[in-house]
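User: I'm writing a short methods note and want a consistent example. For Transposase IS200-like domain-containing protein, I'll paste the sequence; you return only the structure tokens, no commentary, since I'll be parsing the reply automatically.
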Amino acid sequence: MPAKNSVKIYLENGYYHIYNRGTGKNEIFIDPEDYKVFLHYLEKYLDPSSQHSMAKEVKLLAFCLMPNHFHLFVLQLSRNGITKLMRAVSTCYAMFFNKKYEKSGTIFQGIYKAALIESDPQFLHISRYIHLNPRSFIKDWENYPYSSYKFYVGEHKVSWLETTFVLNFFNDKNNADRIGHSSYRSFVEDYALDSKGELADLTID
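Assistant:
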């Protein structure tokens, strides 16, 4: 039987939670440079101005890089967008990691997993689940530097991350020009339950 979310039947204009971990649950990000290099490859392939851009095929909505795994929330615009992006980023990063740490072979636990988002509640909860991930190992998780949370609360902005798809749910209905950074912060930081339970098979094992 295939592993959960390992079968890749992708839809155009479909939202997906993409995740993978290190082989044997080993760390895939060991020092700050590692995180920055992985993010560099996301930027390389997702920035609309990059000559390698896949922005017309897939858009990144949220991310979180943890020591031994990563989460990406994406919108796939073309049927092969996710496959092309993950192949490029994973290959480039694995080559960097193996060279730096004098290793060989795969660094990831098999092929990445992809879970289709099928409802508005799932759409909102998956972004919150991703942003709350660092809460499991650091107290001031809201300041974790390797997630997209700071972009969602209006402290940073980059061209290769599309926050408006989620933030549009939190806009001030009386002010169309006001992006819902504050409302989204409350949505995440005031959450006392475990969003993993609400997402069922959309989360990492």
